[in-house]
Amino acid sequence: MNSDESEMREAVRALAAALETMLNLIKADALPTTPEAQRLMRKVMTYLDETSGQINDSARSGEILSVASALNRLVISAREQILDDAVAASPLPDHLDM
Fold this sequence. Notes:
Blueprint: H1 3-27, H2 35-57, H3 61-89
Helix pairs in contact: 1-3, 2-3
């Protein structure tokens, strides 16, 4: 396997991880409820919309890898914010007395 092929595989993995995370959030009905989480999700959707043509039309795996990695980081940030918000809104304390 050459370097370009390895980079392309890594790019596809990063893109698949981002999309899988988004799908899991949707399946779990983990909707962004706070302004920060909503801002992050809008940023993810805008970035995905703006770069989808670049991903489809790029002949160089390095370009796809950088876009996929950035998208993955954005999605993970949004997921973490959604989860943090859910924990903060939970009526149960984080650690119950034992």
